[in-house]
Amino acid sequence: MLSILENDISRKLTILDNLYKSNRHISIAEMIELLNCTRKTLSKDIASINAAYDVVEYHREKGFFFNKTKGVNFYFFYCTYLRESLHVEVLRLILIEELSIVKISRRLFMSESKTRRLIDVWNQYFDERNFDFLIKTSADCTMILGNETQIRWFNHTMLFELEYIDIYEFKLQESREYGAYKSVLKNDFFDSNTSEHEKIKSFFYVKAALYRTNKRHVDNNEEVYLSFGTKMKNNTLIQFEKIMAIETGVYFTDDVRNQILPKYYFPSLCEEIDSGTSEIMKIINDVFDYILTTEESENRYRAEKKVTLKMNHLHKYGPEVTYFLLDFVALNYKTQQEYYFYFYEELNKIVAKHNFLFESEKQKQLFYKELVLLLNFELSLPKYVLKRPRVTIYLFASHSTIQSTIKIIKSYFGDRIELHVADCINDKLHESDLIISNYFFLGNLEAKKVHFQETIDLKWLYLLDSKLKNIYKKLNS
């Protein structure tokens, strides 16, 4: 929700977000209507954006355009403006230092009444997102109180999003504290398959948890955490503790180690959940029934087990809070929903069939998004959810010519087509969308034919490709 930021920052991020996503020019009139501002304000905002990164170009007739060749994406700006925002800085100071309103106001050179207003705005934001926590104030301090697990997830997303630039520029990865953290993980969890992206996010959770621990906030929801730094045989953990003690003021004890590292980021290290009785198992089983044919299901058991375990893990340990201000999960979900429209429809039916309930719409979005990513990884999901043109090769040619033709077409088109070979005029031929042949047919078969030439060249492949694209559009319109 960008409206929680200062007006000028909110406008600039809205400009950039729309330009970055649209991949087209946006006219001045459109932009003014979008922002509900004057032309002078728009010009000022564009100038401010380009002063930092010269990426917004202007064409007198077409309007504004985001030049992506400059190597700067939307997240650079997002991080830059988060760091500039006094509204965000107030929240960061409350998280890390729990200063009183008087001290926050002095630190940021603003009135106490404005500080109180900003706290009210944040509390309203928390309420709108149905969080089970609020900012509480007293004479001595200002702190976030409520559901501690939710607080830690929210704070870690804030810290993570504030460091986008350092992550993209590899400054974080080269930092002393992150290097020490990775060393601890390597010694403790050497068999972890966790990606670098997940390790970085888990690092910010550890920082958020340590900040909370330093202010004597305890998370009793211990089942969602792994024990951290318990198998050390050298001074790696000691070094990390010293670094983090300087940063957060916390020295590690067994209690601290047991509530700073979330299981969510380390699925391979968690105990396997019995998939035999799982409701998720029923969903995954039906999903595989829907997308796999008999011939393609030889690796079904392996893929099905991996997907079930990972989705079980997500359902059990998935975060209650997935973003700070911009809901990237919802954006990804929306994109996937458009791309995998028919699959999502079928998935909704399967979920309804088993009366599977999600705790929130956010959890459902995360579940669907991760399921699609997993199925892409395990099965190349687009191959199954989109109807592919059925192409049949029916040639009067030698065996070697037919085989080489098959190899060339497979290497060029891959999984985009469903390829068959016929040795006579049969049902397969009639059911085909396209026939590659050097025979002469009568009626409908001739209309489907692409004439085969003895020497296949790029020109012929391009011709075939153009015909397939038209068929593909008809099948998936």
UniProtKB/TrEMBL annotation:
Per UniProt, residues of the M protein trans-acting positive regulator (MGA) HTH domain are: 6-53
Give the residue range of the signal peptide: none
UniProt domain Mga helix-turn-helix: residue ranges: 77-154
Pfam name, any one? Mga
Q: What is this protein called?
A: Uncharacterized protein
Q: Can you name the source organism?
A: Brochothrix thermosphacta
